[in-house]
Specification:
- The protein has one domain (6-212): P-loop containing nucleotide triphosphate hydrolases (Rossmann fold).
- Helix content is 51%, strand content 14%.
- The chain contains nine helices and eight strands.
- The strands form two sheets. The protein has a five-stranded parallel beta sheet with strand order 2-6-1-7-8. Strands 3-4-5 form a three-stranded antiparallel beta sheet, with helices on one face.
- A hairpin with a 2-residue loop joins strand 4 and strand 5.
- Helix 1 (16-27) crosses helix 9 (204-222) and helix 4 runs parallel beside helix 8 (166-182).
- It starts with 5 loop residues before the first strand and ends with a helix.
- Bound molecules: 2'-deoxycytidine-5'-monophosphate.
- The site of 2'-deoxycytidine-5'-monophosphate has 14 residues, from helix 2, helix 4 and helix 8.
């Protein structure tokens, strides 16, 4: 059975990671979280006190560090498991900052294209359908209102025992949306041939089911 590649784009906290994970499990595909790569770069810069919008200095850091992602979704920076640390608010904002830099995007996009050279990959990010996997057989654009996304993140944090404020989370999400949509380099944008799925009123199971159906249709198409 021939495999396909799937691109999932959309704003922060729209559920891209969860849906990509579920789909990868159901299809036996590999999920690559491209946002985690920008987060690892940001964390490395924060640790080395490098200003996050200084392209030359950030590029020096990228060349020095090793970024890896395992099939079970853990992220490693120079061999250290940083999966939890890269989710901290400071790193989230930092990832959005470094992702505005042209040289950084060029470097990470090259790595992502290389990793997903074969079929059977699900990549989630902001520019997957428009830049990284322009030829993906299925492109999904996942959205949800700011309020719904902030509430999901708020509940997730509480479940993990992380103290947080709903209003503050909503403010941070809006700020990142603005920066991701308005940046010059590969701004967050729905690819022309992407299927938009608004998840505001849908459960994770419903979204997974919908996207799985679309994937099965496309898989059947390439196997005709
Ligand atoms: O998906 P995420 O929230 O983990 O992404 C973190 C930041 O990285 C986000 O603010 C935008 C940026 N990003 C990007 O510009 N391109 C991608 N393919 C993935 C993430």
């Amino acid at each position: 059975m021939k495999k396909i590649n799937i691109a999932i784009d959309g704003p922060s906290a729209a559920g891209k990671g969860t849906i990509a994970d579920n789909l990868a499990e159901k299809l036996g595909y590999i999920h690559l979280d491209t946002g985690a790569m920008y987060r690892c770069v940001a964390l490395a810069c924060i640790r080395e006190n490098v200003p996050l919008k200084d392209e030359d200095k950030v590029m020096e850091v990228i060349k020095e560090v090793e970024i890896d992602q395992t099939a079970d979704g853990r992220s490693f920076l120079d061999g250290e498991d940083v999966s939890d640390e890269i989710r901290l608010p400071e790193v989230s904002k930092g990832a959005s900052d470094v992702s505005t830099l042209r040289a950084v995007r060029k470097d990470l996009v090259r790595r992502q294209k290389h990793m997903a050279k074969r079929k059977g990959f699900i990549l989630d990010g902001r520019d997957i359908g428009t830049v990284v996997l322009k030829n993906a057989e299925l492109k999904i654009y996942l959205t949800a209102s700011v309020e719904v996304r902030a509430m999901r993140r708020y509940k997730q944090n509480l479940e993990k025992g992380i103290e947080c404020d709903y209003e503050e989370i909503a403010r941070q999400i809006s700020e990142r949306d603005y920066q991701d949509i308005h940046r010059k380099e590969s701004p967050l944008m729905k690819a022309e041939d992407a299927v938009e799925v608004d998840t505001s009123d849908l459960s994770i199971e419903e979204v997974t089911g919908k996207v799985y159906e679309l994937a099965m249709e496309r898989i059947a198409g390439v196997n005709e």
